[in-house]
Amino acid sequence: xxxxxxxxxxxxxxxxxxxxxxxxxxxxxxxxxxxxxxxxxxxxxxxxxxxxxxxxxxxxxxxxxxxxxxxxxxxxxxxxxxxxxxxxxxxxxxxxxxxxxxxxxxxxxxxxxxxxxxxxxxxxxxxxxxxxxxxxxxxxxxxxxxxxxxxxxxxxxxxxxxxxxxxxxxxxxxxxxxxxxxxxxxxxxxxxxxxxxxxxxxxxxxxxxxxxxxxxxxxxxxxxxxxxxxxxxxxxxxxxxxxxxxxxxxxxxxxxxxxxxxxxxxxxxxxxxxxxxxxxxxxxxxxxxxxxxxxxxxxxxxxxxxxxxxxxxxxxxxxxxxxxxxxxxxx
Length: 331
Ligand code: KG4
Ligand code: ZN
Known about the structure:
The protein is α/β, with parallel strands linked by helices. The protein contains eleven helices and ten strands. Strand 2 and strand 3 form a beta hairpin.
């Protein structure tokens, strides 16, 4: 079969990224322009600024991706972009750019669900990984436990009832003065601490999650005692949130009898979470997968990887594709 070369474009939040991926697995380039330094000044992502930054750099980022792949634009078979979920203005930049390119080059357009992209990051890291598997998507905007029956079929088994896990990491980090983005800062500081502070573990029905209770508990502890050891607080927060994830994943394995567990999303870059899941895998009953670090957070290679499977299924977008800020997985 002929190789399918896909250009991916990602602009759903604060990273402008373009990548060239062959057959959903082989990355020829993956350029990521992060706006983190700009948003740090404001303590979080400012949507209007994000859109403007995407517009300023997208052309250069795409050009660089093609150049690093040592290809010409005409060598691209499919143009893909994230069309949701995400910030509407930010998404529109990537969607409009991809539509323009698709029209100009007369190549098919594939709009990709950002969450499906996070899952597909694992196909790049593990060239032999195939469905079925269970996927725990833990990011700044999402916390989902999903059964992936085949490449384009997702059954949501559980989700957060309130905050996404990454959101709770970012809020805790901000309140205790670590700054933005919080997840990596908590990861680093927790490494120096001991998990010796008692925090509430949410009891949620089924395979669902909740992170707002523990987030508030950490914030209250800190407000009552600003002298509290922050490293220990971070380590305890990480331990309890990880235990919540592990409990539900173990339950899902029991219920589904699927023993392949795949982590995805920005929070799967967390050192402690990766280690604890690896330990679960080392016990021998389940096999654990997580993307290489660069592919955990937002990037376009994962979008091009997901687009490959949509394209194979004939899921081609029309030129009236629009940004869908609250797009759900599977529809
Ligand atoms: O997947 P992502 O880049 O964007 C969304 O789709 O939401 O995830 C960003 C989230 C942020 O909440 C960030 O704090 C978190 O991932 N994150 C981490 C780590 N690296 C990124 N959280 C914990 N530990 C990390 N090392
Ligand atoms: Zn993401």
